[in-house]
Amino acid sequence: MVKKSPKKTFRGVLASVLTAGLAVAVLGAGPAQAQRYGAEGDPIRLTVGYQPYYAQAWSGVVMREKEFWRNYLPEGSRVDFQIGLQGSLIVNAMLAGRQHIGYMGDMPAIVSTTHQRVGDIRLVANLGLAHDQCNIFLVRNDLTPPEDPIEALKWLNGKQTASPHGSCTDRFARAVFEQLDVTPRSYMNQNIEVISSNFAAGRLDAAVIWEPVASKLVEDGIGRRIASGVTVNERDGGFLAMRADLIEARPDVVKAWLHAELDAQLFMADPANSREVAEIAERQTAGFQPTTLWQSLYGANDPAFGGAPVRNEFHFTFTPEAMDLIERATTFLHEQRAIAVSELREDAIMRNFADEVLAERGLTAPVGKIEAQTESPFGG
Fold first, then answer.
1. Is 123 helix (H, G, I), strand (E, B) or coil?
2. pLDDT tens string 218-264
3. Domain-terminating residue out of 232, 253, 276
4. What percent of the chain is predicted at pLDDT more than 90?
5. 3-state class of 164 per DSSP?
6. Confidence band (pLDDT; 50, 70, 90) for 379?
7. What region, left, alpha or beta, does residue 379 occupy, with left being phi > 0 and alpha being psi -120 to 50 degrees?
8. pLDDT higher than 80, residue 28
9. How confident is the model at residue 85 (pLDDT cuts 50, 70, 90)?
10. Contact, 47 vs 80, CB < 8 A?
11. Pairing with 321, which of 93, 185, 233, 308 sits 20 to 30 Å away (CA)?
């Protein structure tokens, strides 16, 4: 179980994570050395990059606390979890060979598979599909854009806007700007800490941000929602990535991890566990109340401003819906010159392991969903 350490401030934790991530990015510049994983059935030591500050990837949070992996990995195995503030930092660590498994959003997941000369990364499972986990537009709370969400997005013409570039929010922001012919005054690359402080200081008009940060900024009275992926019919998605050398050397470990991942997704999809999931996330984050964390994944938002009836749907494997998101996002990222390929290589996505796990468990995709709830288990 995760032991609760003394709390740091939200800003302090984010700063330390960013510093660590930048160091990994430098170390990851060269080809990673070959990994040694042992023979099938041997105990293994894994390092997992995960994102407690990204609600759609909270199966990693649940895995760290509940340790479902102990039920499937060879006895004596060890798993170390490392926080990534955003998916691009996890990608850098995986390319450097310092992490073997990564939980990330759609854009960094797709980008990760295109750098095989540095490190070969494959996608092995889906963490969920939604419309307002990563795809959320906020404006500063004292501004008054039009109430209609489409008009509010067009209102961003000439405004100061930001998102963490290289993240799932970045892909969504660029897609919306192109779809609605919006040209912000500036579209800045800012991490969630800087966005939070710039909103509070009045230096930023709008931002595209993911949950649970979006819910926190709303709860703190700093920002408010104007639209989401629901508004423009754009999905967001989270994906599970693994290094190819791990997959090749230890297919037994891949299957074991995916069985545990399935347990985590089923746990999250059960509404009876929503309070516990929020409390688990609170123990692995700083500056968040469990009520805010619950709202970010389970709570309902106003449909007039992009609130979705389903907060997350656990497809687990690469369903047609998941593949449609990947294919459209890959094309778009190529057009934006974010990646060098217009289609992912054939082996970038390895769905066979997830499909085998579902068959062994007698399940079909999607394995569950989180419907937006209006009553919080915390009361109030």
1. strand
2. 999 999 999 999 999 999 999 999 999 999 999 999 999 999 999 99
3. 232
4. 84
5. coil
6. confident
7. left
8. no
9. confident
10. yes
11. 93
Domain that holds residue 60: 10-21+40-130+237-302+310-371
Structure-block tokens of residue 348: 């970038």
For residues 254 and 189, state if they share a domain.
Answer: no
Supply the pLDDT for residue 35: 56
> Tokens representing 345?
């290589």
Burial-class residue 327 by CB neighbours within 10 Å (0-12, 13-18, 19+).
middle
- Do both 241 and 227 map to the same domain? no
Q: Which is higher by pLDDT, 80 or 337?
A: 80
Burial of 137 (0-12, 13-18, 19+ CB in 10 A): buried
- Note whether 354 and 264 are same-domain residues: yes
Q: What pTM value is reported for the model?
A: 0.89
Residue with tokens 């709860």: 219
Count CA atoms closer than 13 A to 146's CA, side-chain side: 10
Query: In terms of Cα–Cα distance, which of 258, 229, 226, 213 is closest to 85?
Result: 213
Please report whether residue 31 resides in a domain.
no
Residues 290 and 144 in one domain: no
Is 93 a residue whose pLDDT tops 70? yes
Angle at 273 between CA 269 and CA 279, to 5 degrees: 120
Higher-pLDDT residue of 290 and 24 is 290
Question: Which pLDDT belongs to residue 23?
Answer: 33
What are the residue ranges of helices labelled H in 51-205? Answer: 59-66, 87-95, 106-112, 149-154, 168-179, 192-201
At how many degrees (to 10) do helices 320-335 and 168-179 cross?
70
b/e per residue 348-378 (b: at least 16 CB within 10 A): bbbbebbebbbeeeeeebbbbbbebbeebbe
Average pLDDT, the chain: 90
